[in-house]
Write a structure and sequence with these properties.
By secondary structure, the protein is mainly alpha-helical. The protein has a domain of 35 residues. The chain contains 2 helices and 2 strands; from the N terminus they run H-H-E-E. The longest helix is centred in the N-terminal third of the chain and has 22 residues. The model has no long low-confidence stretch (mean pLDDT 83).
Length: 93
């Protein structure tokens, strides 16, 4: 099965230079080659997995706390009974 990266670049409305087209074409062919290798692996005796880990979430009850001192080292600023945190995203950029 052959794939042409130019077709997918056109569908995605991405302009590629000739160097980029050659690089991405090579990358795509390598990825699909690995997929073909995986398709040839005999998994007939492998039991299907449903998760990959036996770890489970530990839930706690959400409750309002009036003991601000409990959180003050992590949240030193409070406004209208809400704990303020530093901004992590800048939407202006």
């Amino acid at each position: 099965m052959e794939f042409d990266i130019s077709k997918y670049a056109k569908l995605a409305k991405i302009r590629l230079s000739e160097e980029e087209r050659a690089k991405y074409q090579k990358d795509l062919e390598e990825i699909l080659g690995h997929v073909d290798e995986l398709k040839r692996v005999d998994t007939s005796k492998v039991e299907p997995m449903t998760g990959g880990t036996s770890l489970r979430n530990v839930f706690r009850e959400d409750k309002e706390s009036s003991d601000r001192a409990e959180f003050s080292p992590d949240f030193p600023v409070e406004e209208n009974r809400l704990l303020k945190v530093p901004k992590v995203l800048d939407h202006g950029a």
